[in-house]
Amino acid sequence: MDCKSNTLFVGLDVHKDSIDIASADPARDGELKHIGRIGGDLSALDKALRRLVSRGHALHIVYEAGPCGFVIWRHLTAQGLHCEVVAPSSIPRSPGDRVKTDRRDALLLAKLARSGDLAVVRVPGGVDEAVRDLVRAREDAVREQRNARHRLKALLLRNGIPYTGKTSWTPAHLRWLAKVSLAYPAQQIAFQEYLHSITESSARIARLEQALRDTLPEWGLMPVVQALQAMRGVQLIAAMTLVAELQDFLRFESARQLMAYMGLVPSEHSSGPKRRQGAITKAGNSAARRMLVEIAWHYRFEPRVSPIIATRQDSLPKAVTDIAWKAQLRLTAKYKRLSARRVMKTKAVVAVARELAGFVWAIGREVQNSGWQGIKSPTAAA
């Protein structure tokens, strides 16, 4: 007997305090049924699913990726149940449907799971997710530091005290800030609090970056992190950010697929003979996209393997260093071409970042396909 004929498709609409459960019979026009609402705890979910299993069904369970993470997936797969986490963006919705409830969402998930119209999200391993959380904590700290700096400079500008030096946040700028005195005690307090916030966030960034360095030697994806550092502009933190966000490069069948996943491909609205392309889609992983764009700024300059890059490339596989050099040649030429056409710098850099994603993909696949174990020396790993 076909196992699918006995499979019950179960949709879970998961929230912090509640879970709505719906089922779809395996037949194409089979019954859709709302089973009910339970509490958000795992014991209540186990009890509800046991009732379905006791009726002789094999369960195919789906729920949307969301703020509750992958706890339910790990809990159910540990019990041998077939569970999938699906991308919310893959769920088709009718433009005229203006009624949204938890019950209807659960029923829709069960129905689409039966028809196979859902895109499944890759669930990271526990260690990989932990490293990604650490990377994102650093990104949050960088954002808070940037916001605090903007607020401080805005306060000084409102009071007619702009900085006249060349570059902000250098030692010279910090010495200048230490001598700033505002007209009123209340303003001076606000100034000092902003300055204190910047100091705190800077110390936090330093602690988190050290934690990343300490975590790397024990991480299974360390070889990919080391290999990506063969590229220009990709140092340890940038490499760890990209790998923590992307993790498995083998799941992307082509470089273009990775570009689309990172939201670096142009949006398009074409009809008939007319083809209109717009700004990049900005879909998918925003943290990896921002990091790639930041790296892409380094390809404005002539191709060159600096002593620092040469040190990072020492002991790396030749296939990896060849890809890194090819990237320099191609991307610097692309930036030059776009600049000659008077394309805005920011647009040119985003175009470079799109192609850079292809070289990152090539290096990631090369390492994960070859099974290269990385550089074991602690100094080389850092």
Q: How is this structure best described in words?
A:
It is a single chain. With 382 residues, the protein is α/β, with parallel strands linked by helices. 53% of the residues lie in helices and 11% in strands. A five-stranded mixed β-sheet has the order 3-2-1-4-5. Strands 6-7 form a two-stranded antiparallel ribbon. It has helices spanning 42-54, 71-78, 102-115, 126-158, 171-178, 185-215, 222-228, 236-246, 255-261, 286-296, 307-313, 318-340, 345-370, 378-381, and strands spanning 7-14, 18-24, 32-39, 58-64, 82-86, 266-268, 277-280. Strand 4 (58-64), helix 2 (71-78) and strand 5 (82-86) form a beta-alpha-beta unit. The longest helix is centred in the middle third of the chain and has 33 residues, at 126-158.
Quickly describe the structure:
The chain is α/β, with parallel strands linked by helices. The protein is 53% helix and 11% strand. The chain is built from 14 helices and seven strands.
